[in-house]
Design goal:
By secondary structure, the chain is mainly α. It is built from 3 helices and no strands.
């Protein structure tokens, strides 16, 4: 399940996160902005409102580990 037909680079979201500690208030701002930026469609699997909500939930869940990887450097498990 996705929120659009193609991947998007959301520079506005990058700008919100860049240079921060990716704290809860920052992630709340990201979730709010995602709801305003994304325009998913409704289909038999999920409504557009649910997809917008889910995008914020997933951003809050996966942005902190991603940010930690970029500040510590990415190392592949071998």
């Amino acid at each position: 399940m996705g929120v659009g037909e193609t991947p998007l680079r959301l520079e506005e979201i990058e700008g919100i996160i860049e240079g921060t500690d990716v704290s809860e208030p920052v992630l709340d701002t990201v979730a709010d902005r995602l709801a305003g930026i994304l325009t998913p469609s409704t289909d038999i699997h999920a409504s557009a409102d649910y997809r917008r909500h889910l995008s914020g939930v997933l951003a809050k869940r996966f942005a902190p580990p991603g940010a930690a990887r970029t500040t510590k450097g990415f190392k592949r498990d071998e």
